[in-house]
Amino acid sequence: MAGIGLSGVTKTYPGGVTAVDGLDLTVHDGEFFALLGPSGCGKTTLLRTIAGLEQASAGTVSIGDRDVTRLAPGQRDVAMVFQDYALFPHMTVLDNIAYPLRVKRIPRAARHDRAREVGAGLDLADLMARRPAELSGGQQQRVALARAVVAHPKAFLFDEPLSNLDARLRLSARTFLKRLQRDLGITTVFVTHDQAEALAMADRIAVMDAGRIRQVGTPREVFGRPATSFVAHFIGSTPMNLLDATVTGGRLTLAAGTLPCPADLPDDTRVTVGIRPEYLTYSKDPVEDALAGTVGIVEHLGSSSLVTLETDGAAPVGVVVEEGAEPEPGTRGWAVPRPGRVLLYRAGGGDLLA
Amino acid sequence: MLFVAPALALIAAFLVFPALWTLYLGVLKYDLAGSNAAAPQFVGLGNYRDALTDPRFANSLLLTVAFVGLSAVLGQNVLGFLLAAVLRDAASWVRGVVNAVVLLAWILPGTVVVFLWQALLDRGGGTLNALLGTPGAAWTLDHPLATIVAFNIWRGTAFSMLLYSAALGAVPRSQLETARTYGAGPLRTLRDVVLPHIRGHVLTNTLLITLWTFNDFAPYMLTGGGPDHRSETLPVYVYRTSIEGGALGYGSAISLIMLIVNLAIALFYLRLLRRRSA
Ligand SMILES: Nc1ncnc2c1ncn2[C@@H]1O[C@H](COP(=O)(O)OP(=O)(O)O)[C@@H](O)[C@H]1O
Ligand SMILES: [Mg+2]
C-alpha cells in the first residue's frame, strides 16, 4: 500500500521540449486518481516518469515512503498498462497474464494457477489458450489488466486504458475498471483526455495543461468550481459559457444583459463570467437578472437539449433545456443563472475570483 | 506466355544452360590442356568418387564449414545484431557515423577492400603490426583461417546490422517497456520479447549470409588458399583445381556438390522458417 509523491518534477526531452514543468502532486494511498488534460499536455510523460521509463530532469518521485527517483522501472514495483495494451503476441493469454510471475521465477505450475485465478476474476477463463490476435479489443484490455493485477504492484499506472475501445464498450469498461480498483484497493493513476471519463471514474482529478497542473480536486470540485477559465472550458460535456463582463455598481454588465455580481469588486474591473449551460434556466418571457438573445441552434442531447442564444457581436450563450420545452429558432429567449452558480475569472484566461 | 518468353529465354541462356553444362562437364575427364582437352573422356561418376575420397576436398569442406560458422553464422550475425541493438538507443550522430563506416566496408569493391586489408596485415610495414607492436608478425601465414574469418566479418556485418536495425525497429516499444517494468533484465527481454518478434528475420538473415559466405571467393585474394591449403575454402578449391590445375571436369563435379550443399542449407532454413507459423 502506497501513495505517490511528486515534488518539483520536470522532464525536458533531449530535443528541448519541456513536457512536465516543475510539478508537485500527491496521490493518496488507495486512491483512483485521474490525470486529465488535452492531448500533448504531458500526461503520458508524467506517468512514464512515475514508472521510471523516463528519468526526471529535476525533482523527486516517491512511491510509498521510498524515494524512487533514481530506481530502474523494475525496482519501483508499479504495473503500467499501455494504450496499445502491449500484450506479447507469441504468448498465450495464460502466459501473458503469468508473465510478471515468470520474471520473478515463480515455478510454472504456481504461476499458472495464479494467472488462471486472476483471469477468471476478469472473465477470461475461456480464453486462456488463445493468442492476443484472437481476442477482441475489450478482451485484450482485460488481459493487460489481469497481467497488471497478477504483478500485485504498489501502484497501477494506466495510460488511456479505454481509448481503444468503442463507445459502448468504453462505458461498461469504466464501471468494470472502477470496481476492480475499488476491490483491490491499489493506488491507481490513470491518464485520460476525456473529461467525462475522469469525472465518472476518479476519486480525484488533476487537470493538466502545458506540463503543469491547473487544478486538483474531486470531480465535484473540478466540475462545480473550476480553478481557472482553462479548466472551466475543458471540463463538462457541454462547454461552459465564458463571457466578458465589467463590474459597475455591484452588478455585472455583459453584452447580453446584467447580472448581480457575486463578489465585492471595484467598478470597471474586467472579468470573465463562467456559467455552465446546465446551471441556466431558460425563459421565453423577459425576466430580471437574465441574459437575453435570439434562439439559434438547438442540439438534442438525449433527455435535454442545448439551446444557443445568439447575442449581437458577443459570444453566444448556451442553455440546457428540458426535453419537450425547446424553443423555436428565431424567437427571443432569456437565460437565468441559478443562485450561487455564477463564477468570476480574472479577464484574459485568469484564475477564479469568486 | 508470350510476355514472359524473353525472360524465359534469358533464364535459359544464363542460368539453365550453364547449370546443365556444369552437369555435363562433371561426368567428363575434361582438362584445360593435353589430350583430354581435345577429346574429353566420359568417366561417369568418377569425378564425384574422386572428390568424395580426396582428403584435400574433405579439408576444404571442413574449412568452409568453419569459415561459414565462425564468420557468418556467429560473427556477422551476432556482431550485426549487437551493433543494431546498441545503435537503437544511441545518439543520432553516433548512429550516423557507425552506419557510414559499416556501410562503406560493404559497398567498397572487393579488390579495394582486399588491398586495404593487405596493407593492414602486411608483414613489413602493416598497420596492425604497428598498432600491436608486433613487427614481423605474418598474420596471413600464421593464422590464415582467422584472417579470412576476421575479413569476412568486417566486410559482411553491415548487411546483418541493417537488417536487424529494421527488424528491431518493428518491435513495439511498449512491449519492451512492459517487460522492463515487471523487472525483466536485458537478456530476459531479449529472449521473451525481442527474439520471438524477429525470429523470421534471424532465419532469413542467417540463410542469406550463410549462402553468400559459402560461395565467397574473396578469401582467395587475401591468402590464395594457402599456406598449405589452410585457407582453401570450396570456391577457392574449385578455382585452384579447375583453372590453375586445369581439371575442368573435376572442378565442375565439385561445383555441383557445392550447389547441392547450398540447396540443402536453403531447404533446412526454409523448414525452420515454416515451422514458425505452426
Ligand atoms: N520521446 C519524446 N521526445 C521528445 N518529445 C516528446 C517525446 N514524447 C513526448 N514528447 C513531447 O512532450 C509533450 C508531451 O507529450 P505527452 O506526454 O505524450 O502528452 P500527452 O500524453 O498528454 O498527450 C508533447 O509536446 C510531445 O510532443
Ligand atoms: Mg498520451
Automatic annotation (TrEMBL), chain A:
Presence of keyword Transit peptide: no
A GO term for molecular function: ATP hydrolysis activity
Q: Which InterPro entries match?
A: AAA+_ATPase, ABC_transporter-like_ATP-bd, ABC_transporter-like_CS, ABC_transpr_MalK/UgpC-like, Mo/tungstate-bd_C_term_dom, NA-bd_OB-fold, P-loop_NTPase, Transp-assoc_OB_typ2
Q: Name one GO cellular component term.
A: ATP-binding cassette (ABC) transporter complex, substrate-binding subunit-containing
Source superkingdom: Bacteria
- What UniProt keywords are attached to this protein's entry? ATP-binding, Cell membrane, Membrane, Nucleotide-binding, Translocase, Transport
Do you know which SMART domains this protein is assigned to?
Answer: AAA (SM00382)
Q: Which Gene3D superfamilies match?
A: Nucleic acid-binding proteins (2.40.50.140), P-loop containing nucleotide triphosphate hydrolases (3.40.50.300)
Location of the ABC transporter domain: 4-235
Q: What name does UniProt use for this protein?
A: Sugar ABC transporter ATP-binding protein
From TrEMBL, chain B:
Q: Some GO term, biological process aspect, for this entry: which one?
A: transmembrane transport
Residues in ABC transmembrane type-1 domain copies: 62-269
Pfam families for this protein: BPD_transp_1
Q: Which Gene3D superfamilies match?
A: MetI-like
Can the keyword Cell membrane be found in this entry's annotation? yes
Secretion signal, residue range per the UniProt entry: none
- PROSITE patterns listed in its UniProt record: ABC_TM1 (PS50928)
Q: Does the keyword Transmembrane apply?
A: yes
Q: Which residues cross the membrane?
A: 61-85, 97-120, 153-172, 193-214, 247-270
Record family assignment: Belongs to the binding-protein-dependent transport system permease family.
Name of the protein in its database record: Amino acid ABC transporter permease
